[in-house]
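We emphasize that the prediction below concerns an isolated chain of 383 residues; any contacts that depend on oligomerization or on bound cofactors are therefore not represented. The input was used exactly as deposited, without trimming of termini.
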Amino acid sequence: MKHFRRLALYGTLTMLVSTGALAKARPDAVDAAARAAMADTGARGLAIATIDGGKVRTVRTWGARNANGDPLTPDTVMYGASLTKAVFGYFVTQLAAEKRLDLDRPIATMLPKPLPDYGNLDAYGNWGDLAGDDRWRAITPRMVLNHATGFANFAYLEPDEKLRIHFTPGTRYAYSGEGISLLQFGIERGLGLDVEAELQCRFFGPLGMTRTSLIWQPGFAPNIADGWDEQGKAEPHDERSRVRAAGSMDTTIHDLSLMAAAMVRGYGLPARWRAAYVKGTLPITTRQQFPTLLPDARPAERPNASAALGVLAFTGSQGPGWLKGGHNDTTANTLVCLERGRRCVLILSNDVRAERAFPALVRAALGETGVPYRWEYPGLPSY
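Result of the prediction step, given as a token string:
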């Protein structure tokens, strides 16, 4: 039965796209797609915002925020996961525009002492593990935001849980949260800036994002989203006690839609730096994103995509676009933006099973985009 529901969902959306009915996001089409997606995947909670002309047009939620059945609302605090990286990349781009840092100057030059001399710091990374491999000296902010440091995603995934560099930094793509932590360390220890305070001052406060933070706030507790894993088991919301630019953001669909709209219209950035944020500069050569450190694929198996400054750049039938996903065992998020018309769809779910419906949901909101789903989500059914 699930198979037939999936066929109906994707078939209906394909027909609508082929007739041009979804050239602009229609609330009724997105609502129908969301309800079909939840029925098909079993996902318990879903939130979708659409942006057109750089302005938020719709914010909708469906389902529950916890096992008690309390409703998921636009002000429910949800886990942003790796969408944090897109916001952090935008912030770093702003620092570059202000000449506070140079995207192509090594992070090592920002620090008062050699990186391995800091040892292993729980709040940042196992920098002491890099002693004896001087390639850390070459890593730049651009390499970090391009995911080209040579690190594994996280050191704890290494067989011995030690941080190491697997290839010459800057030469290829391999997704890495450790790299993001290195740049955060350089900004906080080298430039003396507090990332959370800077994000609040530059973006969250001015944009009215009152329920967004990279560290847990007690005021979030009355309306938080718990999550559901792949087996449909409910898990409590994780109260993150440290600011992690790689992925500690709590937010709401209302709040993050304001940030997404600001990013697509270039809020706080000169035009050339806004263009630099989404300009792909490092081609993607692997067949899929995860697991990281995969070998190069044949050219025909590579996505039409490249790494930009914290997001992924692609080109489709509607021209250039960019995206960022966010995922953990109970979270599925995506942000897809098209430069033409400054249009985006933001999807947050507190149920990882919703991820299977992302291609259909994005298509319902934006039409055919060219998002490299086979690279981003290789385990998804046909779409």
